[in-house]
Backbone:
């Protein structure tokens, strides 16, 4: 079956308006704050402007107030939003909220959608996704999950420790993964729970100092100690948490790729502008062969990443798991985006490592993408394992 990569006219028009909004409204705010915003008033103002521009919540179903884009449609719009570090925040498509919205749309009951999804889509609240744990707990191997939830009268008691929980500071609720059967290492037995932030059993322990800083709400260590939630806090079915995680993680990996592709393009634009204006040794940088090679390699990395993302999105839109396609796209894009930003810094020289442009900030932000949502090594192992299994058959 042929893969059609041409965006729908309505999607193309939304992407065009998103590009204009990000450049005219978001980038000036980003430059004032050096790419890092912790002020909720700034977040609220950016989202208000996005609503007025008609580009807010493009990924959510129309019935919930969004544009109802499929994965291929999101690819075009999210890349334009990602041209600024604050673009995803403005459109309410930043991690982890975007992935949580997708999960809640797919799995939550009607009552849960009204209580959690509706205010999340509207930007009235934020959320976090609590799965990753300190060693020897869940990380690259989710089956190592150690946080447990025990049945108690009228509900469940959750006990465990999570870390690198993005957006936890100020989140109204967490989606917490806890083991309800089996032992660490078992491939099943996890359940997802909706935990309100004011639950006394959920404690924000500390902010973890990390290389990246632009994801709103930081990366935190979170403790669940005697955290009791009612039966209706279960998201989906008991012991089906790993299956639901795949509903979230495959698309979330691709939306991360889309957003970071925007930053790769931004970095390339900064580097090309510098190469065209800067003269050395009697020539413009843009006329020197070594610089031309870096510019060309950047274009190749961006185009190849986009193609792999669209291929994976096409498979997801057809209803497949797209496990191999998303792993390939995530691994390549995470590394390609780093290469693009790194080359852009090199082309710009001393300007590139200064605070006069944001390339240094971009470099810090994109480096962790080779680790979160599955490190490149884990994806390569899974890719090879699938290929070897296919050959064996």
Residues:
């Amino acid at each position: 079956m042929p893969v059609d990569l041409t965006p729908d006219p309505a999607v193309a028009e939304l992407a065009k308006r998103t590009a204009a909004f990000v450049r005219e409204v978001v980038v000036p705010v980003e430059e004032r704050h050096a790419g890092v915003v912790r002020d909720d008033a700034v977040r609220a103002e950016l989202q208000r402007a996005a609503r007025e521009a008609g580009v807010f919540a493009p990924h959510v179903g129309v019935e919930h107030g969004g544009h109802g884009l499929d994965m291929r449609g999101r690819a075009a719009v999210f890349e334009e939003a990602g041209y600024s570090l604050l673009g995803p925040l403005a459109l309410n498509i930043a991690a982890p909220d975007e992935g949580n919205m997708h999960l809640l749309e797919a799995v939550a009951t009607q009552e849960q959608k009204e209580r959690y999804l509706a205010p999340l889509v509207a930007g009235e609240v934020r959320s976090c996704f609590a799965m990753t744990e300190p060693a020897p707990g869940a990380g690259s191997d989710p089956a190592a999950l150690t946080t447990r939830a025990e049945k108690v009268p009228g509900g469940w008691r959750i006990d465990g420790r999570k870390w690198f929980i993005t957006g936890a500071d100020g989140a109204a609720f967490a989606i917490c993964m806890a083991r309800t059967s089996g032992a660490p290492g078992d491939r099943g037995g996890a359940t997802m729970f909706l935990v309100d932030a004011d639950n006394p059993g959920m404690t924000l322990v500390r902010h973890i100092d990390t290389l990246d800083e632009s994801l709103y709400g930081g990366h935190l260590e979170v403790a669940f100690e005697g955290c009791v939630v009612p039966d209706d806090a279960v998201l989906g079915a008991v012991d089906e948490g790993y299956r639901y995680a795949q509903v979230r993680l495959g698309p979330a990996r691709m939306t991360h790729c889309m957003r970071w592709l925007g930053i790769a393009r931004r970095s390339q634009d900064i580097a090309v502008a510098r190469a065209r204006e800067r003269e050395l040794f009697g020539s413009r940088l843009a006329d020197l062969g070594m610089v031309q090679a870096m510019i060309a390699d950047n274009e190749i990395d961006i185009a190849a990443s986009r193609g792999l993302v669209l291929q994976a999105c096409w498979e997801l839109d057809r209803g497949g798991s797209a496990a191999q396609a998303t792993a390939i796209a995530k691994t390549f894009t995470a590394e390609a985006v780093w290469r693009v930003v790194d080359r852009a810094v090199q082309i710009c020289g001393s300007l590139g490592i200064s605070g006069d442009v944001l390339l240094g900030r971009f470099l810090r932000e994109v480096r962790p993408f080779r680790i979160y949502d599955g490190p490149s090594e884990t994806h390569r192992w899974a890719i090879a394992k699938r290929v070897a299994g296919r050959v064996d058959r």
Notes: The two ends are 24 Å apart (CA to CA). Residues 268 and 299 are 8 Å apart (CA to CA).
